[in-house]
Amino acid sequence: MASSHPSLWIRWVKTYLIQKDFFWSVKENTSLGSWVWRKLLKYRDKAKQFYKVEVNNGRNTSFRFDVWSPMGFLFDITGSRGFIDMGLPITATVSEALSSRRRRNHRTEHLRMIENLLNTYRNRADHEREDISLWKHSENVYKPLESSKKTWLQLRLTGPIRSWYRGVWFTHSTPKFSFFAWLVVHN
User: Fold this and answer.
1) Which domain of life is it from (predicted)?
2) Facing residues of 93 across strands?
């Protein structure tokens, strides 16, 4: 039976690398973490298209930085000034945006659209259930399970199958020699 508690690794990353922020708001030029962590931060823009959240209670979903609305990544739409105009702190969750503020009248269309979106979510929020993380499996198909293979197939550029590939990449090949053979084939 799967545990509903985050793994030790996730808790460590949250405590020491993300701290009081969200993954999407951590500064890219941070000195914290390993080389791999800094690469993950560098490629967040590519990752945005593969992740979204189905909001239920909204307690663990960032209002600014998670893709939870049909409008997409709200920070990209409004910039930093938009959330000041909305009266929300940088760390606001969807739950906080739904419950702790009154509706405002805005001059800009995109802020009025966000206010209307909040009203829609206020009426249908499921306060008992946790939010669900969804991962892109194919065009417009998101599922609660992440698949590295599906993500890779969507990211990579596919080309025609080469006649030489079975001679280079086979089940019991030595990776070092396969790589050298691949280099030779590509001059």
Assistant:
1) Eukaryota
2) 62
Residue 176: which domain range? 160-186
Q: Phi-psi region for residue 33, left (φ > 0), alpha (ψ -120 to 50) or beta?
A: left
Beta pairing class for 132-138 and 51-54: antiparallel
| Residues 34, 94 within the same domain | yes
Q: What is the pLDDT of residues 51-67, one digit of tens each?
A: 889 988 888 888 888 88
| Whether residues 139 and 175 fall in one domain | no
Structure tokens, 177: 């020699």
The predicted-structure confidence for 15-35, as pLDDT tens digits, reads as follows: 888 887 778 788 888 888 889
Residue 1, in any domain of the structure: no
Q: Structural domain tally of the chain? A: 2
Which residue carries 């690794």 as its tokens? 9
Through-space distance between the first and last CA atoms of the chain, rounded to whole angstroms: 51
